[in-house]
Design brief:
With about 325 residues, the chain is mainly alpha-helical. The protein has 15 helices and no strands.
Length: about 325
Amino acid sequence: IDFKARSTGIGNLSAEEAAIKIRVLPRLYLLLPVIALVWFIAADYSVTWAIVWTILLLVVVSLFRQETRLTPSRFIEGCLDGAKQVCQVAVPIGAIGIIIGVTVQSGLAMKFSSQLMEITGGNPILTYGMIIFGCIILGMGLPTVAAYMIGAILFVPPMINFGISPLGAHLFVFYYSILSMITPPVALAAYAAAGLAGASVTKTGWAGFRLSFVCFLIPFVFIYDEGMLLKGPLDGILIASGTTVLGIIAWAAFLAGYFLGPLNRIERAVFFVVSIGLIAPTVAGTWIPTLVAFAVIVGWRIFKANVLKKEVQKAAQGE
């Protein structure tokens, strides 16, 4: 999105308009309820009690500053908003609970897993492709939580059968279940975005899909490199995280056709190859050539941008 905005010049603001007037640090205490919720769950409190104590802490924390203080009217408004949001999730979750109960009790989930293995012939790439397709199709029109729950029941078991860690398998399914919200032809999130922008739903959906396509590669890192799951030695975790970040930057530059200036076809092709090499499995040593290639193409773009800047300055001085 940043590269696209820079290439089109959309969103340019003056220094005064871009200045952040709201200070963040004095309001960090508002994160205490979130931290407390995580701690309560980690301390083996039941989810119900964890939420109850967190809500009580939220009320106390809101009293610290006048602008965040929960007045009776704000409290009632918050309760109404909470009830509305719960209804949006509770209804489909209730229906999905029935589906999950049927699939588990009937053994459909395990049968589906075995059928998927037979269809793909045990080929991991084909299996992952079918899972991606299934997550996106089943997730269309459903809230994120509901889409993930269906995907977890049907698609996580075959991934674990391939030797993928449970955490990696769940994150893989979770990511693609979320991406179903911005994948045409449904792209449910596009309806909300188009309503705010007063734009065409179809055009908004395809634009959102193109801009978010960088996210479609990230789940593969979870299943191919456990360093992204914070597993293994520290150097492996740092290499996996660092190469993935650089790979995403290269992938975004390829998609937007922009990095310190417009890219020609050869430069875009180089960024594409580099992005795949950095995001792909970081087996020992294989990331080094692509990292060198990334440094070379970035250095070339910096050099090219500086040359262009000097030419513009000379032209301005000549005028």
